[in-house]
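WARN no homologs supplied; continuing
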Amino acid sequence: MAKFASFTVTKKIVHIALVGNPNSGKTSLFNVLTGLNQRTGNFPGVTVDKKTGSSSISSAITGNIIDLPGTYSLYPKRLDEWVSYRVLLNQDKDIKADVFVVVVDASNLKRNLLFCSQIMDLKMPVVVVLTMADIAKRKGIEIDLPQLERELGVPVVAVNPRKNKGITQLKRTIELTASNQYKIPVRDFIENKELAAASIDDLQLAIPGASDYSAIHYLINHEEFDLDSRLQTTIESIEEKHAFNHTKTQATEILQRYQRIKQIMQSSVTEPDPKEQKRFTAKLDDILLHRTWGYLILLSVLFLLFQMVFYVAQYPMTWIEEGFSYASSWLNNLLPVGWFSDLLVNGIVAGLSGIMIFVPQIMILFGLITILEDTGYMARISFLTDRLMRSVGLNGKSVMPLISGFACAVPAIMSARNIENRKERLLTILITPLMSCSARLPVYTILIGLVIPNTYYLGFFSLQAMIMMGLYLLGFAMAMLVSYIAKWFIHIKEKSFFILELPTYRPPRAKTVVQTMISKARIFVVDAGKIIMVISLILWALSSFGPSGRMADLDTKYEQQMAQNPGAKDSLQMVLNTAKLENSFAGILGKSIEPVVKPLGYDWRIGIALVTSFAAREVFVGTMATLFSASEEQEGMLLREKMATAKKSDGTPLFTVASGVSLMVFYLFAMQCMSTLAIVKRETRTWKWPVIQLIYMTGIAYLMSFIAYQLLK
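OK structure emitted
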């Protein structure tokens, strides 16, 4: 028999950086190239998101792709722009790209070519990718691709990531560029040397191999580069020797680039008469950004969003809840009575049920938010609310962190770094936790389901959905009020401006929506789930054990009663379980804080939930699941049913409209998230502002929930 030697073909790894203007389609292209092979972290030393992924470019090449933050030019202002800038100037020690894929919006070619031309003049391997050609076509813009490629001197590929068109050709072009089949243009896009010839010549003697254009950037931003002190001194002396003017050089360069871009546009692009009838986007903006109708439409969109969260999610939530209830009953019947079975059923299974039941709602909520972002409507919300933001000391840029706060306050607070004005940034950080994040969603959902009737008006408008939207709007209103008051106490005076690009409306991409839904569900289950499970297990231990003397006395007392009345054994066992819970370590802790929370309509069990959920708000549901499983008063019932039948010590229902609304209001305003406090300390570099946040939010939460309970009881 013939024998064949086995061998493994090792594919070459090519590092590819995706760069481009914001809203140019860069992220969509990244998602198509990498699929689910993505990783998200932070760039070293900063809190800016770092998205990387792998893609099979060809049979011989694997692409290691990094999605760099969007920027408009090589003159950075924000922190995320500095991240991209350092990579492009080869000043990032961790990221060294072999090929730069420059994503260009075909419908805004003139503006996008500025950044593209700057990257080309750095003399690195470049592939230009034209996106949104379909939008350009609808605008009446026609691009002569071969002519544009000749003018630029680098390969140009048209793609449509939403329809997966042009991706094969792009991969082939990247392969040829990485293999040096496409040469870097010898001639600069503009005559950079003429901008500061003497300074550039001296700089290139100090840094051999620097292109004319990169030499200009060394002269402008060398203080921000990681260069040795000797080289820093040399560059400073070159600047002084030739009286190098940063501002004049930059202004002259930009003017020359736009002159050259104008020439390219005249030879490569056919544009419609600017006097033609308004485009669809402009017509739609007249309605959606209207001074009156715009706000009414925004409220309608938000209501529909919450209506869908309730209506669509109720079915899978019920299936999951019934599944866990069946699993608990099955395990109870299968396993012998003992601490291990109690741990498994009332600790682990109960904790898992508190996690998994809310996955459908979180997936639906983030899927709908992604649709709003993909269509371009989310940017309109920022524009629409700018005037309101300014009236309370913020500006339109504050809206995006606040909207992000509906997902999670931690990345939302990080994104406030994009706000250049220090006072507005600080105010945004202070009020962002008042936005109802996804961690509050499980709390709202279970409480609304308990105390608010499932009533529909006109057959469609759900009372529960309206209450949910009201909570979100109440949090936003309180944030505006706090910002308005706080602006008088923060004495920082800086000029503020707001510039926003409104992207063209486009249909959402189903693949992106699904990927986001899966990603957010995974984050909730893994990140929040770990906290919920740990606290659930600790709580199970605290609720299952207590002072040995108390527990022994209870066992003796009820054993005697069971012996005297065998027919009431089952009911006495339930009473014993309840008594053990009240006398456990958890019960003792709850009873000690009950006087503080009683004016709000709560008992000791809710008091325990308030304490445990300080680690993370969503722990409330896991705590309820563990406590009510530990009591075993109603075996086989769903958690919501157990909570609905729960009684206070005086026999009155624990969850009423008054106590339920009071509890929702408390969770709406309270700072119950250690991670948020930690990130505020990191961003402000002092414990002063996190402490102020904790005090003012807890105070508002207690006062408002007290008022709500007293008005409704």
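Residues 293-334 form the longest helix (42 residues).
OK
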